[in-house]
């Protein structure tokens, strides 16, 4: 089943008055790209977050934002770094004197430097916190996956409708193409009859040879067969288990190639018009495929 690359997921888990909220958004992208924003206490888990995203999705630009909340302030795994605070205070005072600034150095100034507050180590804190965060992230990724699959179903229905339209068009092209050779034969004989008063000088063998060569140039049966084959594989890929975005894109490219060949070989205004309609449908499919995983 195909899946879209666009969607949103949310997961929230609370354990022992510690809450993690995960928001995950994804949009179109040629490859899988993961952007992460984590609270300071989870910064060391960035690789773990990326691995979880990769285990769920293969394409798309995925943006992960996680926040944490503690009801008990004593559980905050942060501590003061006195050495850093003194060093920055001394540096700011030196800068204040050098620039002849009267304003005093305050706590607000010091807190702008992240090294002043550092992540402490709680007993089993890292693993416990990550366990809760992991649950929240998995819930958000599952939620995102459901939304991407729902949109994928809508896209699949649109693809099937367009494939049915293309089947009707290729059947009509083949029907018209079969009438071209008899029509051209009659037209050529009529022209010769007008030009030659003595019909016996017409070389029937040469005429049949020219008609055979002309018929071969007009024959689009092979292209129609290949076009139908590509449509069959396209529809099979829509219901497959694996990500099919790249495969579907290749098949649309091949169908477009066959349509171009049909347009080049046919000398019929009707077929030329049908080829234009085919290419319009294929272009709409190609645009929609940009959102398929």
Short description:
By secondary structure, this protein is an alpha+beta fold. Helix content is 61%, strand content 14%.
Properties at a glance:
single chain, about 290 residues, alpha+beta, Ribosomal Protein S5, domain 2, 8 helices, about 15% strand
What does this structure look like?
The longest helix is centred in the middle third of the chain and has 71 residues, at 125-195. Helix content is 61%, strand content 14%. The chain is built from 8 helices and 6 strands. It has helices at 46-56, 82-98, 107-110, 125-195, 204-218, 221-238, 245-265, 269-289; strands spanning 7-15, 18-27, 32-37, 60-70, 78-80, 117-119. The model is unreliable at 121-125 (pLDDT under 50). The radius of gyration is 34 Å and the shape is elongated. The strands form 2 sheets. The chain has a 4-stranded mixed sheet. It has 3 domains: 7-75 and 122-148, 2-Layer Sandwich (Ribosomal Protein S5, domain 2), CATH 3.30.230.70; 78-115, no CATH class; 151-289, no CATH class. The N and C termini lie close together (10 Å). The chain has 293 residues and is an alpha+beta fold.
How are the elements arranged and paired?
Elements: E1 7-15, E2 18-27, E3 32-37, H1 46-56, E4 60-70, E5 78-80, H2 82-98, H3 107-110, E6 117-119, H4 125-195, H5 204-218, H6 221-238, H7 245-265, H8 269-289
Parallel strand pairs: 3-4
Antiparallel strand pairs: 1-2, 2-4, 5-6
Number of helices: 8
Low-confidence stretches: 121-125
Q: Measured on Cα atoms, how large is the radius of gyration?
A: 34 Å
Q: Give the helices and strands as they follow along the chain.
A: EEEHEEHHEHHHHH
Proportion in β-strands: 5-15%
Structural class: alpha+beta
Overall, the morphology is elongated
Q: Total domains, how many?
A: 3
Give me the side-by-side strand order of the main sheet: 1-2-4-3
Q: Helical residue percent? A: 55-70%
Could you tell me the number of beta strands? 6
Biggest beta-sheet profile? 4 strands, mixed
Termini, distance in Å?
10 Å
**Overall residue-averaged pLDDT value:** 85
